[in-house]
TrEMBL record:
This is mitochondrial processing peptidase. Residues 208-401 form the Peptidase M16 C-terminal domain. Gene3D superfamilies: Metalloenzyme, LuxS/M16 peptidase-like. Its main location: mitochondrion. It comes from Clohesyomyces aquaticus. It is found in: Mitochondrion. Catalytic subunit of the essential mitochondrial processing protease (MPP), which cleaves the mitochondrial sequence off newly imported precursors proteins. Preferentially, cleaves after an arginine at position P2. Pfam families: Peptidase_M16, Peptidase_M16_C. GO terms for molecular function: metal ion binding; metalloendopeptidase activity. Residues 55-202 form the Peptidase M16 N-terminal domain. Its EC number is 3.4.24.64. GO terms for cellular component: mitochondrial matrix. The keyword Zinc applies. One of its GO terms (biological process) is protein processing involved in protein targeting to mitochondrion.
Amino acid sequence: MASRRLALNLQTSLRSRAAINAVKARQSPLTRGLATPVSHGATTESTTLSNGFTIATEHSPWAQTSTVGVWIDAGSRAETDKTNGTAHFLEHLAFKGTQKRTQQQLELEIENMGGHLNAYTSRENTVYYAKSFNSDVPAAVDILSDILQNSKLEPQAIERERDVILREQEEVDKQLEEVVFDHLHATAFQGQPLGRTILGPKENIETIQRADLENYIKTNYTANRMVLVGAGGVPHQQLVDLAEKYFSGIPAESPNYSATSAQKAKPDFVGSEVRIRDDTMPTANIAIAVEGVSWNDEDYFTALVTQAIVGNWDRAMGNSPYLGSKLSTFVSQNNLANSFMSFSTSYSDTGMLTPYQPLGHLPRILDPTRVDDLVHFTLREWSRLSLSVTAAETERAKAQLKASILLSLDGTTAVAEDIGRQIVTTGRRLGPEEVERVVGAITEKDVMDFAKRKLWDRDVAISAVGQIEGLLDYNRVRGDMSRMLS
């Protein structure tokens, strides 16, 4: 019996060894058939055409799809008071037909290739991008160039889009965070291009004409302000060849030099406030900002670490009150708010460092003086950053920042966005490895030095909407910016 069992085990062993040898013979070296290799340390390549048009790519040989898009160094900041809203209006009209394609043909081409075409406008950039299979990249670039250079801008389409944009504006006005931040920009950069909204005022939307749109294109859609970005499976040289074919005829620079130079004037940050009291609203929504840093500033990443130390907290998300942020623990334990968020918003030459607090009307927070308490202790936390920051909270903030930056680069569209924004704003791209190295070198001393220069005793801009009776006088809030800790 034992010998039969031994023989059976031996046969099984021999069959297993034979199977393994057969697999080795077929797969040498042994590879994972369904796994996708990951490329580490991918580099960003860039080329500039003779007319100043730039091409920037990050090639991933194993990717089956690509995102290609055009980043333009022009947004609502490139407008005037009269034409505010033009950049966003153009974005809406881009997909309504060109000299070569009707709106239906445009939509069918994208749909038939299984692609995705989109656009957006910000205060400083306008972006048109497409995601497709690698084999469809030439068609995608053709469509993008057609949209940018040959849009019909038909009067009927312009009239239709007025109503669409006005409805969009109504929806944005219902989003309190958007409203508060638009007012914050308006007061911090009052009377200046950066203070205008992206959608523009209602009266502009109702009166913008084709001539305004054509003039905006002629002034701002120039080669020296445009970057064609590719991320994914598209090789750099292929995109360069496509750019030569489709974008080499774009004018190198604007004929209206005075208009473009006025756009580049550094805005002044104005210590000021705007308050819209409405006791019918269930919350008080308050944003306080000091002048921040630009994308190019050497303190850019230090500002992000400082912002991460202040942190974010939201009662509705079930967040623990004992997060690493000292302010989150204090706000939670004393029932000062439903949530708060901190932001470091950067532009090409300035920025805003902001704590934003939607103050909830929970039963325990009916006392209107809670609004002032929340603002007071938030600014005390800002003061603390100038005097006492620990190594532990700095390391926590750095880890959170590195994780958020790296996780945000998930997918070809996110990578293209990162490349486009950096190239069009700063002229070069800081890769993930370099970002990790720079952030890793920041110390608690760097944070305190930054806070002393940028937070301590600095003018503030305040935007407040809702039940804000308890928000005390501007001078009282400004005085808290230099209060010594007891």
